Amino acid sequence: MERVVFFTTGPACTLCERTRSDLETLAARHGFAWRSVALHELEQPVADYLIRAPVVHIDGQLAAEGRIDRAELEQALRAAHGLVPGVESGGSGGANP
Question: 20 CB contacts (<8 Å, ≥6 apart)?
């Protein structure tokens, strides 16, 4: 079963198409499976998702919605325990004042 589920309202949703493209890119890069669910095809659509789409769930939990940028999506995937490798910590992260 896919850990990542992408809920979309369909091809007329430009935000959905951008998120779909980002998911395809990240999945190809990091090798995780995901699936897309068209809300209008569900027997009982989640009504509020129709106005919040796109919506991404990871491991059954809401991870991102609405205007989702690739960095936000990648951060949510990284937080999901191994879907996207994290950056090793321990660097200075910048200059101190």
Answer: 6, 8, 36, 54
